[in-house]
Amino acid sequence: MNVLTRTILASGVALAAIMPAAAQDGSATPEARADATLAKMTVEEKIALLHSPMTAMVPPSKRPEGLTLSAGYVVGVPRLGVPMLVSSDASLGVSNLMNMRRGDVATALPSGLSLASSWSPEIARAGGVMIGSESRAKGFNVMLAGGVNLVRDPRAGRNFEYLGEDPLLAGRLVGGQIAGIQSNNIIATIKHFALNSQETGRNVASVEMDEAAMRESDLLAFQIGIEQGNPGSVMCAYNRVGGTFACENAFLLNDVLRRDWGYKGYVMSDWGAVHSTEAILAGLDQQSGEQIDAKPYFSKLLTQALADGKVPQSVVDTAARRVLYAAYAHGVVDNPLKKGVDIDYAANAEVAQRAAEAGIVLLRNEGGLLPLAASAKRIVVIGGNADAGVPAGGGSSSVRPVGGAKRLGKGATSGPAATFAERFYGGTPPLEALQAELPGAAITYLDGKDVAAAAAAAKAADIAIVFAEKYATEAVDQPDISLGEGQDALIDAMASANPKTVVVLETGNPVAMPWQSKVPAIVSAWYSGQRGGTAIARVLTGKVNPSGHLPVTFPASVDQLPNPVLPGSDAAPADKATRAVYGIQAGTKPFDIRYPEGADVGYRWFDAKQRQPLYAFGHGLSYTSFRYSGLQIDNRAPMTVRFAVTNTGQRAGIDVPQVYLKRPGKAKRLIGWGRPDLQPGETQAVSVLLDPRVVADFDVRKRRWIVKPEQVTIEVAMSAAEPVLTATTRMKRQTIKP
Ligand code: BGC
Predict the structure, then answer these.
(1) Which H or E run contains 488?
(2) Which atom of ligand 1 lies at the shortest distance from residue 95's CA?
(3) CA–CA separation, 112 vs 327, rounded Å?
(4) N or C: which terminus of the chain carries fewer CB neighbours within 10 A?
């Protein structure tokens, strides 16, 4: 007897008595089970699967009983055993802004960019397993987690949620994360499909890019993520692509996702991203957050469109079948949510700590200033609210961590950001963690507002550690890449007062560092989550040997970027007519976003243009050193690159050697990497298997990836800008289905 047939409904009626035979049979395919259930459903029940309200906007008396306050819910088909689908954000932990205010907590993982700095799909998976288990225990069976928009601009407000600028790295990491989440018998949602790489004008802007460039960059990240993670759901984005809203874009949803990639799950909209009932004809299955759209497109108006014959019944059936398919395929039906499940927060905090430690990037370490020497007895810690906790990004992904969070000021007080503008600091404060790690040292803290006092304290100390932060949030982009709030001047003054100054960056984006040459040691800790303070202290003191590598390029200035001016930053505010047409309450007039880099995102652009960034994609130092040797290439398709890595230093450490392929006249592309964990003196073999799509051209006319027979250069490198071993080889021609 399978789990389902043993399950008894609250009413006491055995499911076996009321469910169609195939739907009960756990050994039947999810397709067969979905078909069997669909055959028993009324039209109303089918339509009920296709829209979800934002829970907070439903009066409590009208909410289904037992519903956890959530981003949204779909009522399900209880009489046929299909449970309510209850969703919560997001990739960094179980976020629930509403429950947060009621004191709910969850384990906060570090930000997406921190996770991506680990270059480890295993760490991504472990984080996913953990947040998925908390999600289920809190009453959610759909996690709006799996953000994989590529970082195209270091000013974009949501970059901290995403996984960097490279489609292979981001795709593999999101795949690991999704697989981990779904191992809990819940559905994960890869998002925001597609090209939602900035917040400015996100509801109105149209990304204008040729198809080949999309396929070779942003779409490839989704494609790899979907292949590796098999998410039950895809969330379409707010923006338009080629003039058409992503949530009614037949090219994206029907052609690319379904026809070319064979995706079988369902597409849900972003909250407030639906603009028509006809969107269902273009491949959208579910309208989420329906009250914030202009109209009830997928409920009342869909019923009307069915009656008028504008939407055929078969289209509604297809959409409902996809929702059912995902619910069966991902164990949501067979494993009903249970209330009162205990969460092992102590064990989960360890997962967050391991992720934070793996995501810290040592950018600079002149003279081996780090790890902190045992002789450093007087340490002054300055700024960044390091006495309060570590910062976090804002918006729908916010997690109130276990232990609570302190609210210290606003990130923005007006505009759309205002609602998301609370700056929270959580977890063990770095100051406290450092004091615990270094009991023999006198460690004091100054907030840095009085620069002269901070400089005097730095001068009197053996070491000064400045925490520099920059707030980032959903809904708002940043005007520039400076740290702001006087922090550049503060750091400069500290470095002048004490040459042994360390800067710890806590940001959601790459930042400029005008003081860089004066500061011997710089660490990027990103937003490091609930155990971030501890992780930072353990890296600074050497308990943990840093192994993070940048998943994004740090430009020297915005002038190096493909778009020195953020697209739409000068767009006029939306007038009444625009607001009505686009169904928005605020924002800008519509505009087009053009990305001159096309598929050459991030390091590829810097390579193509021969520009020297401040810190290159892939860069990350260690307290030990590594040697690469023995590069060998087997160029039979699929190509394999082999080499060895030796730890030539005194400490154990993890390295991330990267392999790039450079075609004649083209920008280099990452084709793989290793992550060997090496004792001093130890050597390990690394082998990288080429996914040919990463280096192919997408031929739009033939709808095929084409690998050209040509001589290419292979680099084994410490970063996109630091090749160590190089060799040439001849590619074999290959033609691959999309
Ligand atoms: C965000 C999504 C999120 C949704 C539900 C939207 O504003 O763009 O990422 O999942 O809200 O909270």
Answers:
(1) helix 487-497
(2) 12
(3) 27
(4) N
Distances 142 to 124, 146, 206, 420 between C-alpha atoms, Å:
18, 12, 29, 23
Ligand 1 centroid vs 90 CA: distance in angstroms? 8
User: What CA–CA distance (Å, rounded) separates 359 from 116?
Assistant: 7
Among 112, 133, 511, 553, which residue's Cα sits nearest to residue 344?
Answer: 133
C-alpha of residue 140 to centroid of ligand 1, in Å: 15
Strand ranges inside 347-462, DSSP E: 361-365, 378-382, 390-391, 405-410, 422-426, 442-446
Among 624, 642, 727, CA closest to 684: 642
Residue pair 474/237 in contact by the 8 Å Cβ criterion: no
Q: What token pair was written down for 477?
A: 């982009």
d(CA 602, CA 604) in angstroms, rounded, equals 5
Question: Which residues are near ligand 1 (CB < 6 Å)?
Answer: 71, 89-90, 144, 191, 270-271, 396
For residue 269, the one-letter residue type is S
User: Among candidates 433, 658, 528, 472, which has minimal Cα distance to 115?
Assistant: 528
17 half-sphere exposure, CB direction, 13 A CA radius: 6
Backbone angles phi, psi at 99, to 5 degrees: -65, -25
Alpha helices by DSSP H, listed for 591-674, are: 603-608
Structure-derived torsion over alpha carbons of residues 506, 509, 515, 519, reported in degrees to the nearest 10: 50
Measure 396 CA to ligand 1 centroid, in angstroms. Answer: 6
Determine the distance separating the centroid of ligand 1 and the alpha carbon of 459, expressed in angstroms: 47
* Ligand 1: centre distance to CA 693 (Å): 30
Which atom of ligand 1 is the closest one to the Cα of 475? 7
The distance between the two most distant Cα atoms of the chain, rounded to a whole number of Å, is 81
- Give the model's confidence band at 587: pLDDT under 50 very low, under 70 low, under 90 confident, else very high: confident
Residue 411 banded pLDDT, cuts 50, 70, 90: low
pLDDT at 150 over 70: yes
Specify the 3-state DSSP secondary structure of 660.
strand
| 132, 334, 349, 515 from 342: Cα distances, Å | 14, 20, 15, 48
Check pLDDT > 50 for residue 11.
Answer: no
Q: For residue 65, count other CB atoms closer than 10 A to its CB.
A: 6
Distance CA 627, CA 642 (A): 14
Distance 235 CA to ligand 1 centre (A): 9
Residue nearest to atom 8 of ligand 1 (CA): 270
Which atom number of ligand 1 is nearest to the Cα of residue 89?
10
Give the ligand 1 atom nearest the CA of 396.
12
Residue indicated by tokens 């909209």: 269
Say what percent of the chain tops pLDDT 70: 94
- pLDDT for 20 equals 59
Q: Give pLDDT tens digits for 339-372.
A: 889 999 999 999 999 999 999 999 999 999 999 9
Neighbours of 581 (CB within 10 A): 13
Quote the ligand 1 centre to 270 CA distance (angstroms): 6
Q: At 235, which helix (H) or strand (E)?
A: strand 233-236
Quick check: pTM over 0.85?
A: yes
Residue to mutate, 181, 270, 398, 419, ligand 1, most ligand atoms under 8 Å from C-beta: 270
**Residue whose CA lies nearest to ligand 1 atom number 2:** 270
Q: Which helix (H) or strand (E) holds 167?
A: helix 167-182
Question: Taking 90 as the threshold, does the pLDDT of residue 99 lie above it?
Answer: no
Q: Specify the residue with its C-alpha closest to ligand 1, atom 3.
A: 396
